[in-house]
């Protein structure tokens, strides 16, 4: 930002910096967004600030499945019509939306909030794997579906969880290889995802 | 400065992926002629990207790139070898990633090193064919140190050049190799290595990876070598490789798939 150091008033500079930290926002976009905020009516700008505050204040993690929710346990975990013997393990809350859209899963979920990434130093203790082990240990679960992306990190995570849970005698399955290698689950279309769920295989 | 071509071809091994923005990724590639470099794949995380499967870490691919202002940009990618057997096995994935991290951390961008490319390729091929992960990692460590100019002195004392007795001997990274008993006090920190371990290291230095894979290394010896070489690698890298932690986490897992181990007992199954 060439003009950042010189003429930009400090509050705008700060806002630009904040936008720049968001995913997918480069310095130019950050600048455009900041000057856009400067132009909009005050109540619109404050509504945005309030929405951000609400997300941080009111959204919590479900104490059972770690999905994002306003009430604990989340609506999935509360729903007595869902099959409590089967848990679908996903990387992030967005993946739940993709699987729900496909309409072919009626069990519960578990959100890891990441994938194993050895080179970035993301290890098992950085993910919510221990909570999954606790759920399996509680006894009701008979099958775990690893719905992590078919990337190196996703496969490694699935294999790691499988090995960890193997002694508990629970069946651990993996989404069928309908998804192209390296794909992001959140972008997968409903039919591919439904097929991948139906054709899941034992790890 | 000579004009660089705007587009170029190379084969390469994908060492690492970092996501960028909504749909792009930056990949670190090891190539035979241009060393290691970073390049960006635009839209590679979108569902219809044709490059996606061909740019997975630990894949050997044919690449077409265009010069960019800061980073070069992938325009085509096609898998040569996916190393499926590595990806389907946790121990081998962990080891291959560890080797990839060393290849990344020991090198600087665009420093030509055909020997390192050959080594990385040999290790991936061996792991893919079922080579034991631990010894393969030790082979890689020893060879990459030599390629980077840190060859360990294993034949005589690294400090006084004197003869080494066939006894337990100190391996000191700061001295640059094995150190005789008289020099031990003034050599830096290190690990004592038994005669068997020293023989294995000497052998690894002199044979190709296939021959080294035939060596029988029991668990005690494997652990002795792992700990000693970990110290050497961290010394020259001036840091602990991050993926070593993962190799250890995998090693701590209960048994082979479906093996029964006592770590997790479901409450409904009783003791
Ligand atoms: Zn829940
Ligand atoms: Zn000496």
Structure description:
Chain A folds into 2 domains: 5-58, Helicase, Ruva Protein, domain 3, CATH 1.10.8; 61-202, Dna Topoisomerase Vi A Subunit, Chain: A, domain 2 (3-Layer(aba) Sandwich), CATH 3.40.1360.10. Helices cover 45% and strands 13% of the residues of chain A. Chain A contains 9 helices and 7 strands, in the order ααααββαβαβαβαβαβ. In chain A, the strands form 2 sheets. A 5-stranded mixed beta sheet of chain A has the order 4-3-5-6-7. In chain A, strands 1-2 form a two-stranded antiparallel ribbon. In chain A, β1 and β2 form a beta hairpin. In chain A, α2 (10-20) crosses α3 and α6 crosses α9 (190-198). The termini of chain A are far apart. The model of chain A has no long low-confidence stretch (mean pLDDT 89). In chain B, the strands form 2 sheets. Chain B has a 5-stranded mixed beta barrel with strand order 1-2-3-5-4. In chain B, strands 7-6-8 form a 3-stranded antiparallel beta sheet. In chain B, α2 runs antiparallel to α3 (114-128) and α3 runs antiparallel to α4 (133-147). Chain B has 2 domains: 7-82, Nucleic acid-binding proteins (OB fold (Dihydrolipoamide Acetyltransferase, E2P)); 85-251, Up-down Bundle (de novo design (two linked rop proteins)), CATH 1.20.1440. In chain B, 35% of the residues lie in helices and 21% in strands. The termini of chain B are far apart. The model of chain B is unreliable at 257-271 (pLDDT under 50). Chain B has helices spanning 84-87, 90-105, 114-128, 133-147, 195-206, 209-213, 219-237, 243-251, and strands at 7-20, 24-31, 35-41, 60-66, 72-81, 169-172, 177-179, 191-193. Chain B is α+β, with helices and mostly antiparallel strands and 271 residues long. Chain B has 8 helices and 8 strands. The interface between A and B is large, with 40 and 50 residues. Bound molecules: zinc ion (2 copies). One zinc ion (ZN) is lined by residues 157, 159-160, 162, 179-180, 182-183 of chain B.
């Amino acid at each position: 930002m060439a003009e950042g150091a010189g003429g930009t008033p400090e509050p705008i500079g700060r806002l630009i910096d904040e936008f720049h930290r968001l995913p997918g926002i480069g310095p130019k976009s950050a600048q455009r967004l900041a000057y856009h905020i400067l132009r909009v009516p005050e109540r619109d700008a404050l509504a945005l600030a309030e929405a951000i505050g609400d997300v941080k204040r009111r959204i919590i993690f479900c104490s059972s499945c770690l999905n994002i929710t306003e009430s604990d346990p989340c609506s999935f975990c509360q729903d007595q019509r869902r099959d409590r013997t089967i848990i679908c393990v996903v990387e992030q809350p967005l993946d739940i939306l993709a699987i729900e859209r496909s309409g072919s899963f009626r069990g519960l979920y578990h959100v890891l909030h990441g994938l194993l990434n050895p080179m970035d130093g993301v290890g098992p203790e950085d993910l919510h794997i221990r909570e999954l082990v606790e759920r399996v240990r509680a006894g009701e679960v008979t099958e775990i579906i690893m719905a992590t992306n078919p990337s190196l990190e996703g496969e490694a995570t699935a294999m790691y969880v499988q090995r960890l849970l193997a002694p508990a005698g629970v069946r651990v399955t993996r989404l069928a290889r309908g998804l192209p290698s390296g794909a992001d689950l959140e972008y997968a279309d409903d039919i591919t995802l439904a097929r991948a769920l139906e054709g899941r295989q034992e790890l | 400065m000579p004009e660089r071509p705007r587009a170029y071809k190379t084969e390469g091994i994908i060492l690492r992926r970092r996501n960028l923005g909504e749909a792009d990724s930056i990949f670190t590639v090891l190539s035979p002629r241009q060393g290691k470099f970073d390049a960006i794949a635009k839209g590679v995380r979108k569902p219809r990207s044709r490059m996606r499967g061909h740019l997975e870490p630990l894949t050997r691919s044919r690449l077409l790139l265009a010069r960019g202002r800061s980073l070069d940009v992938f325009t085509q990618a096609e898998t040569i070898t996916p190393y499926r057997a590595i990806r389907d096995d946790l121990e081998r994935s962990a080891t291959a990633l560890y080797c990839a991290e060393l290849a990344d951390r020991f090198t600087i961008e665009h420093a030509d090193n055909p020997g390192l490319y050959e080594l990385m390729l040999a290790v991936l091929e061996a792991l893919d064919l079922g080579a034991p992960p631990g010894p393969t990692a030790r082979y890689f460590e020893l060879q990459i140190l030599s390629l980077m100019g840190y060859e360990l002195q294993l034949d005589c004392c690294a400090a006084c050049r004197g003869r080494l007795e066939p006894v337990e001997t100190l391996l000191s990274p700061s001295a640059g190799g094995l150190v005789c008993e008289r020099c031990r006090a003034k050599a830096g920190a290190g690990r004592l290595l038994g005669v068997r371990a020293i023989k294995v290291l000497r052998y690894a230095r002199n044979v190709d990876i296939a021959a080294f894979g035939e060596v029988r290394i029991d668990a005690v010896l494997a652990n002795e070598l792992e700990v000693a070489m970990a110290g050497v690698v961290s010394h020259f890298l001036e840091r602990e490789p991050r993926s070593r932690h993962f190799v250890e986490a995998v090693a701590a897992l209960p048994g082979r798939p479906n093996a029964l181990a006592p770590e997790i007992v479901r409450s409904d199954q009783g003791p």
